[in-house]
Amino acid sequence: MSLVGHDDAWAEWRSALGGARMHHAWLLAGKKGLGKASFAQAAARELVGVDPGFGDHPDILTLTYGPKNKEEAKKRDDGKPYDLARGIKVEQVREIQRRLTTRPTMGNRRAVIIDPADDMETGASNALLKSLEEPPEGTFFLLVAHSPARLLPTIRSRCRTVRFPTLSKEQMDALLRELAPDADIATRDASIDAAAGSPGAALSFVERDLGSAARLMRTIIEKGDRDFALRGELAGVIGAKQDIPRLQAILDLARAILAERVDHAGADPRKLVETHSELVRLTGEQPTYNFDPGLIAMEIGTLLAAAGAASERRNG
User: Fold this and answer.
1) CATH number, position 113
2) Burial 66-88 (b: 16+ CB within 10 A, else e)
3) Segment holding 186, helix H or strand E
4) What is the pTM (predicted TM-score) of this model?
5) How many structural domains compose the chain?
6) Minimal CA–CA distance to 61: which of 89, 92, 96, 93?
7) Mean pLDDT score of the chain
């Protein structure tokens, strides 16, 4: 069964699959949370001719984030939780390339999925380019990319691009009613608004019960927070636990809410754009520096309050 919004992608893929000459590299482009990785896995199974229920297939190679360092790799090998690297490393690409020197195991086709390709380190991108320029016979590449512009132009030029559209609010609402039936209306609506058409993001917001955080953030950006009371409430909603996935979701939510404001700003929303850049910076630093959740709440609230005040002055 295809996910919502994938019909055109499947039509394009299956048309090529049934054609005389299949393109060797595909760029699956679109916002994070649209199901591109799920599409890649299912498409790879069709490519190598295996049923959906079949287990791991030796001719489907998936390249994604690995352990952060040797210590984390040892934890993985011991079956323990481990921290992931922030990018795909050149050694990972080279390991895949070594495996491509042999023929496919069970047929005459093999799929290599890179997810997300736009998080490859520079050395990894350059190494992959060589394989895209001279692809091994029977090997097809599927590159999942949330921000295709971050890929090398030479990589993009060698790929056939399939774009995945965001979903409408109506589609998102129907999906959340099906997949998260216990979510209250306020949480569901806040998650839909903040996710901006990404069902994966919306489900993440619902699962982490971020409806209250969304309401507080919108109130701060619309009305300000002179006495810091709303920022205190936001800190309480976020909680004191150092839960990195939850904090990342909170930061994603803040950026989405700010983006709504940018869309409705006046002719010169520079302060809003600057604030969005600060939130992007904070999101990137959070996994590394492990900021205190209370401080994250205060910084988010301060940025949103300042951006809201700037846009009011601009529009008023």
Assistant:
1) 3.40.50.300
2) bbeeeebeeeeeeeeebeebebb
3) helix 185-195
4) 0.77
5) 2
6) 96
7) 87
